[in-house]
Amino acid sequence: MRTHLIGVAIACGLAVTASAQDMTRYIDLGSPEMMSADMTRSELEAVLAAAGGRPADLTGKRLSGLDLSGLDLSHAVLRAARLNRTKLAGARLDGAVLDQAFLLEADLSRASLRGASMFASQMQRATLDGADLSGARIAANLTGASLIGASLAGANMSADMKNQSMGLMRAVMKSARLDRVDARGANLAHTDLEFASVRGADLTGASLLEASLGGADLTGATIAGADFAGADVIAMKLIAPVGLEQAKNLDKAEHRDRHEHEAGEPIGARQRAGQLWS
Prior knowledge:
Helix content: 10-25%
Shape: elongated
Largest sheet: 2 strands, parallel
Order of helices and strands: HHHEEH
Mean pLDDT: 86
Number of helices: 4
Structural class: little secondary structure
Number of strands: 2
Strand content: under 5%
Distance between the termini: 60 Å
């Protein structure tokens, strides 16, 4: 009953405003519901075995603090589950449903989440270094998370434009670490990357349509074919980028005259000298 009520509270909260994507403000994060587990790893393994290869239904389960490193949770339904500070290093979560799940400070380093769904998930300060999220649907709050060397190739992290009554549900990666991330062909439209470190990332062919890039550091990033139309690039660093000439719509980015370019020079100065974005 208590799990059901929490699920209802989450569903109701999401329908309030765009800021409702951060559900942590409505939840007592120190409560047993959020920080404890209602089964052991062995018991979870038994549930997975009993599923006989079918997707295990772990909706609303409390798995916080467990060491589930290396476990195969492929296609498991973990909707509204609590996995706060759970160790999932090297785990397999391919095709898993993690919608509305809580993974605050969870360790997902080197985990495989290919094609997984993370809609309205709370993943603040989670560690996903070296994780494979290629092809995943990610409209999660990843504020302060670390995705160093992770793969986001072909991932869809854009806003859900069909559900505006729920607010602007999209990937939020404020102050996240995305250094050397592989985001080739990723849909990052409308995402929030303010003050994120994206140094040395591969953004080849990525869509950054109307993304928030204020204060983001794209030093050394590969941006060939990346679309910056309508992106807010105020105070963004774009030093020594690769594939600059093949980038799309940089001239249509917002606040491009207040963008930090090579040698700390605002882009406006380069524009006036006829050296747009170069």
